[in-house]
Write a structure and sequence with these properties.
little secondary structure, Low-density Lipoprotein Receptor, 2 domains, two-stranded antiparallel sheet, transmembrane, membrane, disulfide bond, repeat, LDLR_class-A_CS
């Protein structure tokens, strides 16, 4: 068991898994860049994250959400080739990442 920068306990397996578990997201700071299903492609100095969660044309990595509209984009619009797969920490975050906002559709009473 490790800890967040604020001292909160943290499972070691949660560090650099692409999902911020610490209140300050420090478990995702300074992660090594890797490629592969479910891993962060790169995170450095507060730049945006790019995910490589697609395993096949209709299959997403375990824990990823598949946008029924077929497009998941990070930030404003799709600047790179979009994937239908979205990291689960983007669900119910108040930002529509799927083309038709399916990632926010069933979030009544849910907030992050």
């Amino acid at each position: 068991v490790g800890s967040c920068k604020d001292g909160s306990p943290l499972q070691q397996s949660w560090v650099c898994d692409g999902i911020p578990d610490c209140p300050d997201h420090s478990d995702e700071d300074d992660c090594e860049c890797e490629r592969g299903a479910g891993y962060l492609e790169c995170r450095s100095g507060g730049r945006s994250l790019t995910y490589d969660l697609q395993l096949g044309s209709a299959v997403c990595a375990d824990g990823a959400f598949r946008c029924p509209s077929g497009r998941a984009c990070e930030g404003e619009g799709c600047k790179t080739t979009p994937s239908p797969c979205l990291p689960r920490n983007h669900l119910c975050d108040g930002i529509a990442h799927c083309t038709h906002a399916e990632d926010e559709a069933a979030c009544v009473g849910v907030s992050r």
